């Protein structure tokens, strides 16, 4: 594996492109390969073992493509499988976890909200992370139904607006001043979320932090690409149009069975 090999990024579907975009903006000279496992989305309702097995399948695919580093652009896969992946593979992994720390540290009302999948909120990793913030009230909400709607391209449907209203209204009433988006699909809902939240509530996601961490790991352990730059490659086992649309139709999408 050399520094000129690509970075691999995977998610249960199209949501991890929010993380891929942050990485691509910070590291435009890196080659990247993105894998959307849409056929198996959502991961959020699956058992830990199913999430571990699906994650391994994705990692095997990316390693076959010669990836030098793998970014797990999925909170559910990170919080349920990163330990098992690190035990089995030697390639460095970067995971994504809900950004509880900046929200809890900066909250003035000492009340924050988190919207994430059931798999993430139930995970040991997430629950250990929240233990550190005993003084902060953390309102956890599972985003039931949001990922399937996003994977269908239904971001602006009345059903989406209703679900978001029902998840966010109790948080507003509880006086949160930070909302943590604990699923890489949810940054695509920020315009819809902003219609519901009062302006003083800040929305936090983890895209930039993951991109910076990717940069650090390349600098310290692997090295940056100093060869030619190829176009990013996107693979999906779902509907290529939805993935293309979320990327504003800027890139070619490869359909693949994996
Ligand atoms: N995008 C994923 C996450 O960050 C998972 C969504 C799902 O497949 O349930 O949690």
TrEMBL record:
One matching Pfam family is Asp_Glu_race
What's its job?
Answer: Provides the (R)-glutamate required for cell wall biosynthesis.
Q: So where's the catalytic machinery, residue-wise? A: 74, 183
Stated name of the protein: Glutamate racemase
Biological process GO annotation list? cell wall organization; peptidoglycan biosynthetic process; regulation of cell shape
Check the record and name the Gene3D superfamilies matching this protein. 3.40.50.1860
Recorded superkingdom: Bacteria
Q: Name one GO molecular function term.
A: glutamate racemase activity
The record's InterPro entries line, in alphabetical order, gives: Asp/Glu/hydantoin_racemase (IPR015942), Asp/Glu_race (IPR001920), Asp/Glu_racemase_AS_1 (IPR018187), Glu_race (IPR004391)
Pathway this chain belongs to: Cell wall biogenesis; peptidoglycan biosynthesis
Keywords in alphabetical order? Cell shape, Cell wall biogenesis/degradation, Isomerase, Peptidoglycan synthesis
Reactions listed under catalytic activity: L-glutamate = D-glutamate
- Homology family: Belongs to the aspartate/glutamate racemases family.
Q: Which residues bind substrate?
A: 11-12, 43-44, 75-76
Q: What is its EC number?
A: 5.1.1.3
């Amino acid at each position: 594996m050399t520094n000129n090999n690509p970075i691999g990024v995977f998610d249960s579907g199209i949501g991890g492109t929010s993380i891929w975009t942050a990485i691509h903006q910070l590291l435009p000279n890196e080659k990247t390969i993105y894998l959307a496992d849409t056929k198996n989305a959502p991961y959020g309702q699956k058992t830990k073992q199913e999430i571990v097995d699906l994650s391994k399948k994705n990692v095997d695919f990316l390693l076959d493509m010669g990836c030098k580093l793998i970014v797990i652009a999925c909170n559910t896969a990170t919080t349920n499988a990163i330990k098992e992946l690190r035990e089995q593979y030697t390639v460095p992994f970067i995971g994504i976890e809900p950004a509880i720390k900046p929200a809890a540290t900066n909250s003035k009302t000492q009340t924050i909200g988190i919207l994430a999948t059931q798999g993430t909120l139930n995970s040991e990793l997430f629950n250990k992370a929240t233990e550190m913030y005993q003084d902060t009230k953390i309102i956890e909400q599972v985003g039931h139904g949001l990922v399937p709607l996003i994977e269908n391209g239904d971001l602006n449907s009345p059903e989406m607006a209703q679900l978001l209203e029902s998840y966010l209204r109790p948080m507003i009433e509880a006086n949160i001043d930070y909302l943590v988006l604990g699923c890489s699909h949810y940054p695509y809902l920020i315009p819809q979320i902003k219609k519901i939240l009062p302006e003083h509530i800040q929305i936090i996601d983890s895209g930039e932090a993951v991109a910076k961490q990717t940069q650090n790991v390349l600098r310290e352990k692997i090295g940056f690409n100093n060869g030619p730059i190829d176009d990013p490659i996107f693979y999906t086992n779902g509907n290529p149009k939805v993935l293309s649309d979320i990327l504003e139709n800027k890139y070619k999408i490869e359909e693949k069975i994996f």
